[in-house]
Write a structure and sequence with these properties.
The complex is a heterodimer of chains A (290) and B (432). Chain A is an all-alpha fold and 290 residues long. In chain A, 73% of the residues lie in helices and 3% in strands. In chain B, strands 7-6-8-9-10-13-14 form a seven-stranded mixed sheet, sandwiched between helices. A five-stranded parallel sheet of chain B has the order 2-1-3-4-5, sandwiched between helices. Chain B has a two-stranded antiparallel sheet with strand order 11-12. Classes of the chains: A mainly alpha (290), B alpha/beta (432).
């Protein structure tokens, strides 16, 4: 049996990682909730954001955290343009086309990254990369601590935007009732593009919090895409609160699974939960009736 | 900032080589097609070598050698280092007048990318075979070498393994496969025996061991060997943990380590994971009596030393190492460093492997594959910078090969064992 400090350390580790998972899943669930797009390019977009953070650091010497506003804006712009000029045009609002399109986009992105950055795994070295924070007897790495609060902060901001701003109301309206929203004078096309933009902006933020304690290579997104989809299903497709809690839950399950079952089996727990939810509560924790 | 990487151009280079006999393929059955290709490729080369007699100053046709490494993917860094070693060797051989017995024929490298997986490695061997190479040097990782040597064997294509420490590589009776360096069985045995010597000399402070290894053939095989050797010397193996490539979070493993509290930690993994593991240990303030690596990916690496001098300090490694008393090895090190690269074991291993092959071609006086295999099997190559005994291939394994034990001392990597090559006295245990 493990010592309580070690259990606690693993738990904290899981919670911090889970917060970042949640932020990534938030973007995915927003895009699904509003556009009903299952965005297979989400992982590849995260990879782009990570390379963005890496390039800013490597070329201009910008600290990953300081890159946050730049990355959020850049990813927002990318998302907006992608939806407006590619997905919207080529998809013709047909789900299966959009599905294939996003899958295709992810392949294109990965290969572009291969051309520009090669397949090497790259990391960012900062003064705080190796620093730890003592929380009682537990040692938590500083980048993870920052990532936790950062991810929570951005998530809270997202939720407030969705709840209290006109844009948020418009997005929710379009998500619920496309035609009705259009009749009320909401520019649906615009809302689509904005939602996609916000979805990717989440990735921009997540990348800034992730990279100091993580790495980037052209296929880095693959590791996140399954986890994110699991979280989205777990929380309920399109539910923000669900994504947040689901993310943290998955982070904890992964970390404790790794501790008890060994590193290579750590992710088993995630998929057991996934299957369990699909069988007994397919609408997820916070989703409506399917 | 970026490590030099030419993989993409080289992929194009290889795939765009004209395939001999390609137009004939269509109508042939696959078996006879293979035979035809093998014959046509080798005879085309042989014929071209014969049919152009060297008349004053005319250039001898080049000897095509496949240089196959995982230059992209998880092993990209190591693969690129290997490739650099091969290219430097070819440069040196060509500068010294090429293969003299073939009229000064230059060696021409056909670069291939195994993409860090065995299937891609095999596919590259097929391509190289069709492009008519005389031999292949590669392919760094054990799992990849296992596949590439086997594919090359189908075409009787000589394959000099540069690193690939898994002993299965030379235990399958493949006549085309030669490994100049030591295998992991030898490395593990030497490491364990020396650990016992060090521990006994220090009054036996270390009793328990934890092994952390990567999941592919190299790590798993090394861990299995250690697990069977160590108890014989009275060590208690507390835990053996396997991890994936890449792994970016070693916190759980290090937390387990904290719980188990072993005297000695033995990592057997590739560079990135090794570096991260040791750094996480530093972060979580886990300091065993020794970090004792067997073929550690970053343990005796100048790159790791430069990037994380504190984390690297004191680490002992049983690994491929050059003869520190040979001046040429230091010259080579300088040349590599002048390129802005690190003189890692991958560089000098592949550098030497290429020389072993060139020596065989020289003696074979031919680019014929069978002749080269024959020359390799009779090799007594001694003009190299490795601390090996006399070269003698038995079933493709160089019996003279051996690893050295190094330790990171005062910001440099120094040989501690054996005595013949010793540069500094070993420090064991690390803390009282």
């Amino acid at each position: 049996m493990f010592d309580s400090t070690i259990f606690l350390a693993s738990l904290l580790n899981g919670i911090t990682m889970g917060a970042v998972y949640a932020l990534i899943a938030l973007g995915l669930t927003l895009v699904y909730g509003v556009l009903h797009i299952i965005n297979f390019a989400h992982g590849a977009c995260l990879m782009i954001a990570l390379y963005g953070v890496y390039a800013l650091w490597a070329i201009l010497g910008i600290d990953p955290y300081a890159a946050l506003p730049v990355m959020v804006l850049m990813m927002f712009a990318l998302g907006y343009l992608l939806q407006r000029y590619i997905i919207n045009r080529a998809g013709h609002s047909k789900d299966e086309r959009v599905l294939l399109l996003t899958l295709g986009l992810s392949i294109v992105f990965e290969n572009l990254a291969l051309i520009w950055f090669h397949s090497d795994t790259r990391t960012v070295e900062t003064a705080y990369s190796l620093q730890t924070l003592s929380i009682g007897p537990v040692m938590l790495s500083l980048p993870k601590f920052y990532a936790f609060w950062g991810a929570l902060g951005v998530s809270a901001l997202m939720l407030s935007i969705m709840r209290w701003t006109d844009l948020g109301r418009a997005i929710r309206a379009v998500a619920k009732e496309r035609t009705g929203a259009k009749l009320m004078g909401i520019d649906v096309e615009q809302v689509y593009a904005l939602s996609f933009g916000i979805g990717l902006a989440c990735l921009g933020a997540a990348a800034c919090f992730l990279l100091p304690a993580y790495y980037v290579n052209p296929t880095v997104g693959n590791g996140f895409i399954f986890v994110s989809f699991t979280i989205v299903v777990l929380g309920g497709m399109g539910s923000f609160l669900g994504a947040l809690l689901g993310g943290i839950l998955i982070g904890v399950v992964e970390s404790l699974g790794g501790l008890y079952l060994g590193e290579s089996l750590g992710q088993v727990g995630i998929f057991i939960i996934f299957i369990f939810f699909l069988i007994f509560r397919p609408q997820g924790m916070f989703g409506g009736k399917p | 900032m970026h490590t030099p990487n030419k993989n993409l151009t080289s992929i194009v280079e290889i795939s765009s080589k004209p395939n001999e006999g390609f137009s004939v393929q269509k109508n042939d059955s696959s078996k006879s097609r293979r035979e035809f290709l093998a014959i046509s490729a080798s005879s085309a080369l042989g014929a071209s070598a014969l049919s152009f007699p060297l008349i004053g100053g005319a250039e001898a046709p080049p000897v095509k050698i496949g240089v196959l490494h995982p230059v992209t993917g998880a092993n990209a860094y190591s693969g690129q280092q290997c490739r650099m070693g091969a290219e430097m060797a070819i440069e040196d051989i060509n500068k010294r007048g090429g293969i003299k017995s073939l009229g000064g024929a230059k060696i021409e490298a056909l670069l291939g990318d195994a993409q860090s997986n065995p299937q891609a490695g095999s596919a590259e061997v097929e391509k190289m075979n069709e492009a008519g190479v005389s031999a292949i040097v590669g392919a760094f990782a054990s799992a990849i070498c296992l596949a590439t040597t086997q594919t090359a064997a189908k075409y009787n294509l000589p394959h000099v393994v540069d690193v690939g420490v898994a002993d299965q590589i030379v235990e399958r009776g493949l006549k085309n496969t030669f490994r100049f360096g030591p295998g992991y069985k030898k490395c593990a045995q030497i490491a364990v025996a020396n650990l016992h010597v060090l521990n006994t000399a220090a009054g036996k402070p270390a009793k328990s061991v934890m092994i952390i290894h990567e999941e592919s053939l190299f790590g798993t095989g090394t861990a299995n060997l250690l697990s069977s050797e160590l108890p014989g010397y009275g060590y208690d193996i507390k835990e053996v943990i396997k991890h994936a490539n890449p792994t970016r979070d070693f916190n759980n493993i290090v937390l387990r380590m904290k719980q188990v509290n072993p005297d000695i930690v033995i990592p057997a993994n590739y560079y990135n994971e090794y570096a991260l593991l040791v750094r996480t240990m530093q972060q979580q303030k886990v300091a065993p009596k020794a970090i004792y690596s067997v073929l550690g990916g970053a343990a005796s690496s100048y790159k790791f030393l430069k990037e994380f001098p504190e984390a690297a300090n004191g680490i002992i490694d049983c690994n491929h190492w050059f003869n520190p008393k040979d001046k040429r090895s230091l010259e080579l090190k300088k040349r590599v460093e002048a390129k802005g690269a690190f003189f890692s074991y991958e560089v000098f291993m592949t550098y030497t492997a290429m020389h072993v092959l060139a020596d065989a071609i020289e003696r074979a006086k031919s680019t014929d594959r069978a002749a080269i295999i024959d020359a390799l099997s009779k090799s007594t190559f001694s003009d190299h910078i490795m601390p090996y005994g006399p070269t003698q291939f038995v079933n493709g394994q160089n019996m003279g090969a051996q690893p050295l034990m190094t330790q990171v001392v005062k910001g440099d990597i120094k040989v501690i064992i054996p005595r013949d090559f010793r540069e500094v006295e070993p420090i064991f245990p690390l803390k009282a």
